[in-house]
User: Fold these one by one.
Assistant:
Number 1:
Amino acid sequence: MADKQFPTRDSQADIQALEWVVQLQSGQFSQDDQLALKAWLGQHASHQQAFERAARLWQNTGITDELVFCAEAQGQAVTDIARQGWWQRAKQALSCWGMPYGLPAGAFSILALAVLLGWLWRGNGADIQYYASDYLGNSQVRLLDGSVVTLSGRSSVSVQLSDEKRSIKLLEGAAHFAVAKDRARPFVVSVDNLQVWAVGTAFEVRKAEAIRISVDEGLVDVVARTHNSNMLTSLREGERVSFDAQGQFSAVQPFDIEQQLKWREGRLIFAHAPLREVLADINRYRQVPILLADARLGALPVTASFAISDAEGLIQGLAVTHQLKASRSEQRIMLSR
């Protein structure tokens, strides 16, 4: 696949739009800046179009907070990142692994950027809304149609409600959807090249190494779009399925609704789950991540129950059950044998 690049025409509007997006991300965006941006957007239709292109570029090309922080620390112009291909960005990210984890106080996260973009677009007539949670806990949103979305830690969605369809995109993390019945408007959750179709039901969608869908009420259809065909499977209450990076569905499996959706109440419960899956879940609720010194440890089976705020209990349990040791720094906790 060819690298996505900043538009080669480099029009003045495109350059100004990217500068605005970088300013939004910088953590130095004041109320006066908001007014100036809205005024700039209103000057010409091409400004709005350029700004939308720049915002999509920022999200689609994998420009993360950490990469921006790294570039600034190395004296590189942030706008240069947008012109790099994925391999150049990957090499730069690798060179930054030794840098302090996280961002300076007050810096915007990419989720905060999404929320601001949602506010700006709504102010200019587009019917797109963004919702996000941080690492401190879950977040719940009631949509205008009456549906309820519960976001896990560090998760985000975009929502567009029209007369024909209710379209939601899971941008990051995990979310549970309690869908209000409306037979005239299907409720469609998209994540990467997967879509979940429902009318009135309740289900979870989780984005990690594989995409996982779990249904706790009603029936959903899951459609996967691959390079040469579409695949379809249906799930009933108490069933779940995963879709892996190779474009394959797992077998439909039963799951314990009462236990395995407890994260909505602030508790994580696992039954013989691989350690890498456990850490992916708990790290959404942590500022300092728990990592593995050896990727092979990720296959270790874990059976555990703990509050989302009690990662220390998990670490102590792993020391007993799997003889794992934890080495700590300000940037990370590393588990090893």
Note: The CA atoms of residues 296 and 305 lie 23 Å apart.
Number 2:
Amino acid sequence: MSDAAARPDDIKAHLANVQQIAAIVGALRALAAAHQREARGHLAAVRAHGASLGAALSTALGAGGVWPEAGAAQGRLSILIGAAQGFCGSHADRLAEAARAEAAAGADLIVLGSRSCAALAEIRAPLWQAEMATHAAQVPELASRLADALFEALAARPGLRVRLVYIDPGAGGAGPALLTPSLWPLEPSRFPPARGPGPLLSLPLPELIADLIEEYVFSALCEALMLGFASENAARAEAMAGAQANIKRIAADLRAGWQRARQEQMTTELIELASGAAR
């Protein structure tokens, strides 16, 4: 009788543990969704900043500025906008696979995100690595440090070809997509010289264009980091939604099991009481 009597209590304790896990999963999902909204709210400003810099470059070129010549190719560098944490489904694995492909093709790596750094520990050490932003407000400061590391690498190898590797969370119903856009050298054709009266300048045109190019690269890094931050949290929200569905199923099974066990316990107790009364 003791084993039968304990079984409903064991199931009830298991159910309580499952409910605690459900609360944690629910909090993780809500936090990931909040981070997604936060990133979307900042993306418009980041893109507007990039567009204004592009227009400024076109204006400077239209005023007679000359686009700086790119050096001869001196290898490749890939910047992985990776994953900071787990619980995001296949997101981190997808990024790690893409980074391994870049490294296998001969590219040096810059890696962001401790989860991705750990996943890539078996290949050669990155040129630079850092923790990924955990809030959208941290992106500009991280982009600034990343830009410093990038331009330091470019100073040592001016002909370095650089591209980004990140996942765009998608918009308008489109799913997440792995993107590998070229970052450096910038294509001058993207900034056609603007016609019209020349701007009032306080810097020599070559210096102005160089500064605008650096700021444009910083803006491009901000956008990629913001999209990477959004995509990780979108993946986490989706993974937590799946976990919630599984937890609901497990909890329902446990409640049904508890009811059966409780009924069996009551039946056993009645039989034992009836047997004792008969004696």
Note: The helical segments are 2-62, 91-104, 114-119, 139-156, 205-278.
